[in-house]
Amino acid sequence: SSDLLDLACGLSVAPFAVSTQSKDLSGGFTISLQGMPRDYTRDMVEDLMIEHGFFGQFNFLYVPCSFNTGKPFGYAFVNMVTVARASEVFRKLHGFRGWSVESDKVCAVGAAVTCGLEANIQRYRNSPVMHSSVPDYMKPILLRAPQQRLACSLPSMHEEAQGPEAAH
């Protein structure tokens, strides 16, 4: 695997050793965890992050799930509070195989397209996943140190988000 990732936030890192240029990273740095077992839930990802020493170091977590089955797709988005913490996640979890469920999947850590806490709030606040008909476990959560959940608390800009059926 390459030590150099081209990150969607516009940064080039040798894993996340950032030359920030003019990029505003005050909202943190969002990573994607790919290659997770398909039954790895949001709670399991949160536990994984805490078990690897990231308690209080991430403030947003989303594990996309199928609206039809409710099952996760096998990836997650986690907003780390700093680029340094994102770099630590890369070092600890890229290539990880020690899942809490039976699986031969290998974790790949990269940068998410949507980068930073505010950008994630803006991205998901009126998304179909925030509709009242979607179960809470399928929704993104905000976390405040020390890992206090504010589940489903993404503030709505206008009226309630359209339901999942409108997203197809």
Features:
single chain; 168 residues; alpha+beta; six-stranded antiparallel β-sheet; two-stranded antiparallel ribbon; globular
Topology of this protein?
Layout: E1 5-6, E2 12-13, E3 29-34, H1 42-51, E4 58-62, E5 76-80, H2 83-93, E6 108-111, H3 117-124, E7 141-144, E8 148-151
Antiparallel strand pairs: 1-2, 3-5, 3-6, 4-5, 4-7, 7-8
Side-by-side strand order of the widest sheet: 6-3-5-4-7-8
Estimated structural class? alpha+beta
- Considering DSSP H and I runs of 4 or more, what fraction of the residues is helical? 10-25%
Instruction: Tell me the distance between the termini.
Output: 35 Å
SSE pattern: EEEHEEHEHEE
- Strands, count: 8
Beta-strand share of residues:
15-25%
Report the principal-axis shape.
globular
Number of helices in the DSSP assignment: 3
Give the low-pLDDT segments: 1-23
Major sheet, described briefly? 6 strands, antiparallel
Cα Rg: 16 Å
* Mean pLDDT across residues: 80
How would you summarize this macromolecular structure in one to three sentences?
The chain is built from 3 helices and 8 strands, in the order βββαββαβαββ. It has helices at residues 42-51, 83-93, 117-124; strands at residues 5-6, 12-13, 29-34, 58-62, 76-80, 108-111, 141-144, 148-151.
Summarize the structure in words.
It is a single chain. With 168 residues, the protein is an alpha+beta fold. It contains three helices and eight strands; from the N terminus they run βββαββαβαββ. It has helices at 42-51, 83-93, 117-124, and strands spanning 5-6, 12-13, 29-34, 58-62, 76-80, 108-111, 141-144, 148-151. The N and C termini lie far apart (35 Å). Mean pLDDT is 80; it is low at 1-23.
